[in-house]
Design brief:
Aminopeptidase; four-stranded mixed β-sheet; 3 domains; single chain; binds zinc ion
Length: 433
Amino acid sequence: MRITKIFLWIIALGVMLLAKNSPFAFYALNGEQEGHTLLVIGGIHGDEPGGYFAPAILAQYYTIKKGNVLIVPNLNPDSIMTFKRGIYKDMNRKFAHISQKDPDFDNVTRIKEIIKDSKVDFIVNLHDGRGFYRQEWENSIFNPKAWGQTYVIDQKTLDDVPFGDLDNITQQIETKLNQSLHYDFHTFGVRNTQTRFNDEEQQNSLTFFAITNLKPAIAIETSKNIKELDLKTFYQLSSIEALMDIMGIEYERSFEMNLKEVDKKVKEYGKLSINDNMALELENIQSILNFVPLKKEENRFIFTHPLGRIHQGKNGYEVFIGHKRIALLKPDYFSMECDIQDMNISLDKRAFEAVRFGTIVEAKEQFLVEGREGVRVNVIGYAKKGVISEDNMQIKMDWIDGNYSLDKDKMVFRLEVYKDNNFCGMINIKKGN
Ligand SMILES: [Zn+2]
């Protein structure tokens, strides 16, 4: 009994020592015209989604014309996926000292190097803080100790450094943002922590590390008390835009800056490609997909969304965008030694075209897959007695059982191709109107 306990304790310790945060993503948006460089860091705290969806949208939908914007949308990936502040404790307290054995060591060390890069002129660290900041105490939610809706500076100025007037810069952003609030009580304020003199704990933070390396840095905090993710993201993006204006960074974005459009962007999950032979549109995906052909090991998952992650759990492969678990893929394991990359398909009785695995095609009424020696075609949700391979036959879209669709609207279906015992690939057939 006792020996078992010690043994388990050693295993637990081993797991702790071996734990390591996943690496973060890095995007560099470089303008054609030279200019200043802003570094945007999101997701240092995993339970602050305003702080990571905003940079994810920035990375995907903005084009920089003048200057540069560097983006780390998910500094703390494992904590984001579990929606915890820090599963390896608070990462924002590890910038003065960190042990090499710390699971966050690699990420903290790498972001420190990026912060110190001579090209970087200004750094923002994005958060969702508690409550609503007010200069005077009103109650437990609105008070001077709240972090929500603030621009946090460690000191008023950083002398002799371009953009070192942190107080003035944050006041400009504050003034701009307070003109377009969705509710009056969402007022932004500037909170000066006077870190060097007053706040020993804050001396371990990312922004203070930047300051001590003569890099202007601020934190942007929306409020945890604002429940609408689109609204927090809107405030974060608007603040970043105000800062880019101050820095002379010119940009274009592919959407109108209003709550409705930001809401759409927050919900655009993009595409997941798996093993180069299948792809899933994630926006409206069924929450559980059964018998997904995967390899036993070394599957390659590639997301278009910066916050896309796979977690291999007990029941299968969980698909995450940020902290949101959007689907569970229940695997059906296959080897994939197959030299075919496409199939010839006739859509709505038109001429055959070669369709690559991992793409979507549309058929209004029907489709036909050209047969191939030794290859088996399986349309999931369709079966005909005595037919082994569903090729060389017109299949009407209406014949496919909607319960087997990839999407919640029952519009997109799986066409799977096998050779002997190998899975070759999947084509998605969408019902057109
Ligand atoms: Zn935070």
